[in-house]
Amino acid sequence: MLEYIPIEKENIPYRFEIELEAEVFEMEIRYNDLYDFFTIDLYKDGEPLVYGEKVVYGVPLFQDVRDSRFPAVDIVPKDEAGLENQVTYENFQKTVFLAVVR
Predict the structure, then answer these.
(1) Checking CA distances to 90, which of 9, 13, 68, 70 falls within 20 to 30 Å?
(2) Are strands 14-20 and 23-32 parallel, antiparallel or unpaired?
């Protein structure tokens, strides 16, 4: 069973803390309503690690910039049923979730 990062879509844009593998990070999630996509900023110890990482279906977040400061797990936007192929405002947090993959 996968673990999911809960996102309060009605509060976007907002910042929240999350513990991943015993490390605390902050994420800020935003939505671009013109082009229907979400982005995430990642912080650790108040230091910005990434600004504006686009949430793309099936693609692990932060894969292009990862180093030892980043979470030791993958965070992948996915639909367990396999019915979706993109992340949209309509399906995010209904059928598509941010899965923590260990």
Answers:
(1) 70
(2) antiparallel
